[in-house]
Amino acid sequence: MTTLKQSLGGNVRQYGIVGALLVIVLLFQVLTDGRLLLPNNVVSLVQQNAYVMILALGMVIVIVAGHIDLSVGSIVGFIGGVIGVAMYDQGVHWFLAILIAVALGAVVGAWQGFWVAYVGIPAFIVTLAGWMMFRGLAIVIVAITRAGFPAPFVSISNGSLPNTLGTVAGRDLLTLILGAVTIAALVLTQMLSRRAVVKNELTAEPFIGFVVKLVMFGVLIGGITWVLAGSRGGTPIVLVIVAALILTYNFVMGRTVFGRHVYAMGGNLQAAILSGVDTKKMNFRIFVNIGMLAGIAAVVTTSKAGASVAAAGTLFELDAIAACFIGGAAVTGGVGRVYGVIVGALIMGVLNMGLSILAVGAEWQQVFKGLVLLLAVAFDLVNKRRAGTR
Fold this sequence. Notes:
Helix content is 75%, strand content 2%.
C-alpha cells in the first residue's frame, strides 16, 4: 500500500475522488434500474448542474488563495434580474445582454475585491455583506417575474449543437469528435504542464501517478461523451461553454504566473509577500474573476429557467463551495485543482439526480449532500494528520 501511495505521489485523494464518483454512479445506476445513465438524463444532469461547475471554477481560486465567497448566489440572482429586465423591458439584444452580464459581474467583483484587497476587510465579511446587498437588489429589480426571452438565449442552456455530421452506430458523430478533441486537449495540457515542472527542476508527480490520472479522466470524459452521443440532441450547448472554461482555467492555474501566485498566497502568505507577490493586486483580480464567472452563471441560470425571478441563485454559493471541498480543495487554502472541483460538482449533480429519480424528498437530498461534504473534509483532515505524523 505504501508503494502504491508513493507511486501516486501522495495524491491518493485526488485520484480516489474520481473512483468515488464512479462508485456513486454505479450505485445509483443499480438503484434506479439503469435510468440514471439514460442519455437524456445525462444531458439533464449537465444542463442542471452547469452553474455549479462555472461557479466552482472561480470559487476554487478564491479558496486556494485562502478566502471564501458567500455572495455568488446573490450576484447570480442580481445579474440575472438585470439582464432579464434589459431583454424584456428594454428590448436589448440577447447577445448584448450576455456581454452586460459578464461586464456587470466584473464590476461587482471589483467592488468586493476593493474592500478585501485595499481596505483589508476579511473576504468572509465582505461577501457576507454582498450576499445580503445583492439579494436585496435582486428582489428590488425583479419585483415581477420576466419571461419570454428570445429563443437563441433560451437555447444556451436548453439546446444542443446541430447534428451536421450525421451518426455512427446510432451516435452523434459531432459529439464523438468533440469528446475526442477534449481528451486530446486534456492530455496535451497536462503533458505541457508536467514538462514545464520538470524543466524548472521542480518536484513533479511520479510518472505512474501522472498516467493513472490521465487514464481515469480520459475514461470519465469518454464515457460521458459516448452516452451524450446517444441522446436526443447530442452535445448540449452549455457543455461546450463549461468545457471551454475548464480547459482555460486548468491552463491558467497550472501554467501561468497568476496560478502560481494564487497557490503561493494560499500556501504561505508571508513567504509569498517576501517573494515579491503583489497580494493586493492578486486578491483584487481573484474577486473580479469570480464576479465575471458569476455573470456567466447568471446567463446560464436565466437561460435554463427561461425567466428572471428574484429567488434565482439561492444557495448557489453553498453548492460551489461544497463542490470545491468534495473535489479536494483544502480548508486552509493552498490546495485545490480544477479537475478535482469539476468531479466534486459531478458528485453533487449525480446525488441530486439519483435521489430525484428515487423520489427522495428535497429535504433528505440536503441531508445526504451535507453528509458527503462532511465526510470529504474529514477524510482530507485525517489524511493530513497521518502524513504529519509520518
